[in-house]
Amino acid sequence: NAGVTQTPKFQVLKTGQSMTLQCAQDMNHNSMYWYRQDPGMGLRLIYYSASEGTTDKGEVPNGYNVSRLNKREFSLRLESAAPSQTSVYFCASSEARGDQPQHFGDGTRLSIL
Amino acid sequence: EDQVTQSPEALRLQEGESSSLNCSYTVSGLRGLFWYRQDPGKGPEFLFTLYSAGEEKEKERLKATLTKKESFLHITAPKPEDSATYLCAVAGTGGSYIPTFGRGTSLIVHP
């Protein structure tokens, strides 16, 4: 099984450019999540989708938008990239119950110049 | 608000030197405590879920234990391939079901 697949794996942008990070899961999970991971800061939740058709803000949503395209796919969009958004972005999925683990993709490494 | 603190931030061991990683947590009620392993350039990989105080789970050289305030990840006779960052996360019964992550412990095992 592929699990959680993220594309692209690496990306370099210039300040002000826009881009969309893609995520797809094949585990039939209801919930999907976007995190960013920065040195010394741990994993911080950007947005999540408890189920198809719903999205909610996490801890650090400013500068980002999301779309839950269907049950499998959850995308993250940067409308006008800023250097502060240089980070590693992880997508995850799980059952929406809190007692089940999350399954993560291998990340997108994003640099904004 | 759920809180998770992991210690130490970094740990260096010699191959075969057993040790423990700590995860202290504060939640209104525990849905689950999760341990993950993260290798450089990869996403976190699920290891264990613990649900109640006194529970223990084992996998190869790893053993996770849980009390009402903390969890330990015991590593017995580690090998260099156990080198990774270990993350702890807790999901509480108050508010959102989404787990809160600690900042992790970076483990290096020298041959």
Question: Any overview of this molecule?
Answer:
The complex is a heterodimer of chains A (113) and B (111). By secondary structure, chain A is mostly beta strands. Chain A contains no helices and 11 strands. Chain A has strands at residues 4-7, 10-13, 19-25, 31-38, 42-49, 56-57, 64-68, 74-78, 87-94, 103-104, 108-112. In chain A, the strands form 2 sheets. In chain A, strands 2, 4, 5, 6, 9, 10 and 11 form a 7-stranded mixed beta sheet that branches. In chain A, strands 1-3-8-7 form a 4-stranded antiparallel beta sheet, with no helix packed on it. Chain A is globular and about 40 Å long. The model of chain A has no long low-confidence stretch (mean pLDDT 94). Chain B is mostly beta strands and 111 residues long. Chain B is built from no helices and 11 strands. In chain B, the strands form 2 sheets. In chain B, strands 2, 4, 5, 9, 10 and 11 form a 6-stranded mixed beta sheet that branches. In chain B, strands 1-3-8-7-6 form a 5-stranded antiparallel beta sheet, with no helix packed on it. In chain B, a hairpin with a 7-residue loop joins strand 9 (84-92) and strand 10 (100-101). The model of chain B has no long low-confidence stretch (mean pLDDT 95). Chain A binds chain B through residues 4, 33, 40-43, 45, 48, 58, 90, 92, 96-107, and chain B through 31-32, 34, 36, 41-46, 49, 51, 87, 89, 91-93, 97-99, 101-104.
Which features would summarize this protein structure in a list?
heterodimer, A: 113 residues, mainly beta, seven-stranded mixed beta sheet, four-stranded antiparallel beta sheet, B: 111 residues, six-stranded mixed beta sheet, five-stranded antiparallel beta sheet, globular
